[in-house]
Design a protein that fits this description.
mainly beta; four-stranded antiparallel beta sheet; 1 helix; about 40% strand; rod-shaped
């Protein structure tokens, strides 16, 4: 058995911080220092502990020492990734116009890792379709920029992925997904479905008769893709084309404004314009050929000999002679022909 004066007691000094008391314990008999809870390098990388030991003899004097406990870092923290998309109200969607130039700013990326050394060194990369790239601007900051021209009509949305990976062993990584939506610009003029329209309409039509429908499309969105139709001003036999035909500005339907007469006008040529509502608007023109078809609406006319009251007097000596007749119809119309009817007298002379 040890003598009373050989026994000693070990304990924390009077100036030990509460954090040390919450984290460590000293066995008063053997002085063993143990943990009460787990330590975290990112919270505190070292602890300074004041320890006091005193024997049990009379008039004993305590001895003091300082114990420093250093916490070794392990790779226990994944990198933190923050993406600023400059899109109010939605942190997962970035917007960029299809007219954006090369290297247009899309988003800001900041990476961080609470670990130290290689465990805290982060490598960042961008996964996408090649239309965007990642550029490092500072030790922990990156910019996402456009890397190619964009066309909303070909692709309106891109899904991008940012991967941040530390250099620890084993390494830890964080993945961040977000979307880039391409905004529309008025970069497409309306396009007609035909390079030229040829319309056929029989003469003697009623004013307001339907002729045909022209169709133009515009792949842009909203007002940029809203198409209206109009007929470009021109003259037909000295009169405005607007007195012959009209077009519905919304549907592109063509209508006749007057009755056509092939014998007076067999063909009408004019231009129709399709214009979008963008700012500034874009437009395209198409030619329209209106062919007036013939109908048998004119009687033949005897041109010679001259007629009086629908008859002609011909001397007997000239009974055999040539008659001439005409018809205003053209092309594939019925034409005209003449027939001489024999004359039967009421009395026969010697």
């Amino acid at each position: 058995m040890r003598a009373p004066m050989e026994r000693s007691s070990t304990r924390f000094g009077a100036h030990v911080s509460p954090k040390v008391l919450e984290t460590f314990r000293i066995d008063p008999d053997d002085g063993r220092l143990t943990l009460l809870r787990r330590v975290d390098f990112e919270m505190a990388d070292s602890y300074d502990i004041d320890v006091q030991a005193q024997d049990m003899g009379p008039n004993s004097m305590p001895a003091h020492c300082k114990v420093t406990v250093k916490v070794l870092d392990v790779n226990d923290n994944k990198p933190d990734v923050a993406v600023s998309l400059m899109a109010p109200g939605d942190e997962d969607v970035a917007f960029v116009t299809e007219a954006a130039a090369l290297d247009t700013f899309v988003a800001l990326v900041r990476v961080d890792d609470a670990d130290s050394g290689l465990n805290g060194e982060v490598v960042c990369r961008l996964l996408g379709q090649g239309h965007f790239r990642l550029q490092k601007t500072h030790e922990k900051n990156y910019m996402i920029l456009t890397n190619a021209s964009l066309d909303r009509e070909k692709r309106s949305e891109y899904s991008l992925t940012v991967i941040a990976e530390d250099r620890g062993t084993p390494s830890l990584s964080t993945v961040k997904h977000f979307t880039v939506q391409v905004q529309d610009e008025n970069d497409n003029a309306p396009s007609f479905d035909k390079s030229r329209y040829e319309v056929f309409k029989a003469e003697n039509n009623s004013p307001g008769a339907y002729l045909a429908t022209l169709q133009a499309s515009d792949p842009d969105l909203g007002a940029n893709g809203q198409v209206s139709y109009s007929i470009l001003e021109s003259l037909v036999q000295g009169s405005s084309i607007s007195t012959y035909v009209t077009v519905d500005p919304s549907t592109g339907a063509l209508y006749a404004l007057r009755t056509f007469d092939r014998e007076e006008l067999s063909q009408i040529y004019f231009l129709v314009q399709a214009k979008d509502s963008g700012n500034p608007p874009l437009s395209s023109n198409v030619s329209v050929i209106l062919n007036v078809l013939d109908e048998n609406d004119n009687r033949p006319v005897i041109l010679a000999p001259p007629l009086w009251n629908h008859s002609a007097e011909v001397p007997v000596s000239r009974a055999c002679r040539r008659w001439r007749a005409g018809d205003r119809h053209q092309g594939d119309g019925p034409g005209c022909w003449c027939q001489r009817r024999p004359f039967v007298p009421h009395h026969c002379g010697q």
